[in-house]
Amino acid sequence: MKLVWSRLAINDREAIMDFIARDNPQAAIALDDHFEAFARRASEHLLMHKPGRLDNTREVVIRRHYVMIYQICHRRVRILRVLHSAQHWP
After folding, report:
1. 51 pLDDT exceeds 90?
2. pLDDT at 25 over 90
3. Where are the domains of the chain?
4. Residue 28 binned pLDDT confidence (cut-offs 50, 70, 90)
5. Are 86 and 18 in contact (CB under 8 A)?
6. Which of 26, 35, 68, 79 gives the lowest tally of CB atoms within 10 Å of its CB?
């Protein structure tokens, strides 16, 4: 399946990386690699992660503190958001 990142998810990802990189650039790179790996895995194994809180979404927890929300539609896996687990969703 084709993997697509929404503008919101890209913004989320950049904000997380910027925040972490202030103190530890290597940790930011490692976490971003995890985000990419989990997104890729979602596109290869469509039903691997649990159903999301919103209809037609799925969610995966990454490193205990982040939640990646995605949707499967029209032969694409669309990453909708990447949020800190403390953030309100939805």
Report:
1. yes
2. yes
3. 2-84
4. very high
5. no
6. 26
